[in-house]
């Protein structure tokens, strides 16, 4: 989607003193946020086939990583934990959905900040992505992030930080 005002038009308004420098910076930051959200919307998997492909990819990658770590005897427990965390990550990613990206993008394009619920969904998406990465440390970090009080605290902190950046 094309921005409402081009950069040249914003600069013209700035020279005519119809817009202040801080307002110009706010508009630039909102446009940068919109660009990031557009990229996320393109990258976010929407179809079941994509989730199956992700599951197969990470199910192959994780055991290979564990085989390299423990070359003498790959443990079945470690393999089953890896497959379980892959499943958890994909289920969370699918149930979270991409609506938060669209909601955030709509808010940013109208000149408002995304709601706190969008920040919460972004943190849950990050946790689901961490479940997909190989390694027990990523799984522990994802488990901590997905606990509701932690997610809410981080979402509120992130939202307050965003409010501070744009005021």
Given the structure, what is the number of helices?
A: 8
Give the count of structural domains. Answer: 1
Shape descriptor: elongated
Give the termini distance in whole angstroms. 25 Å
| Class by alpha and beta content | mainly alpha
Question: How do the helices and strands follow one another from N- to C-terminus?
Answer: HHHHHHHH
Low-confidence stretches: none
**Total E-strand runs:** 0
What fraction strand?
Answer: under 5%
* Rg for CA atoms: 20 Å
Q: Describe the biggest sheet?
A: none
Query: What value does the average pLDDT take?
Result: 73
Residues in helices, as a percent range: over 70%
Q: Can you walk me through this structure?
A:
By secondary structure, the chain is mainly α. It has one domain. Helix content is 80%, strand content 0%. The chain is built from eight helices and no strands. Helix 2 packs antiparallel against helix 5. The longest helix is centred in the N-terminal third of the chain and has 23 residues. The mean pLDDT is 73.
Structural key phrases:
transmembrane helix, membrane, transmembrane, elongated, 8 helices, mainly alpha, 167 residues
Quick take:
With 167 residues, the protein is mostly helical. The protein contains eight helices and no strands.
């Amino acid at each position: 989607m094309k921005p409402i005002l081009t950069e040249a038009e914003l600069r013209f308004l700035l020279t005519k003193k119809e817009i202040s420098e801080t307002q110009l910076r706010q508009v630039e930051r909102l446009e940068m946020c919109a660009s990031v959200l557009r990229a996320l919307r393109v990258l976010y998997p929407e179809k079941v086939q994509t989730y199956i492909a992700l599951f197969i990819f990470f199910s192959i990658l994780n055991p290979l990583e564990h085989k390299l770590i423990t070359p003498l005897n790959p443990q079945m427990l470690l393999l089953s934990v890896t497959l379980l965390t892959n499943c958890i990550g994909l289920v969370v990613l699918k149930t979270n959905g991409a609506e938060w990206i669209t909601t955030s993008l709509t808010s940013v394009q109208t000149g408002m900040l995304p709601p706190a619920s969008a920040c919460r969904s972004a943190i849950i998406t990050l946790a689901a992505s961490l479940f997909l990465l190989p390694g027990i440390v990523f799984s522990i970090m994802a488990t901590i992030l997905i606990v509701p009080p932690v997610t809410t605290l981080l979402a509120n902190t992130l939202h307050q930080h965003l409010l501070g950046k744009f005021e």
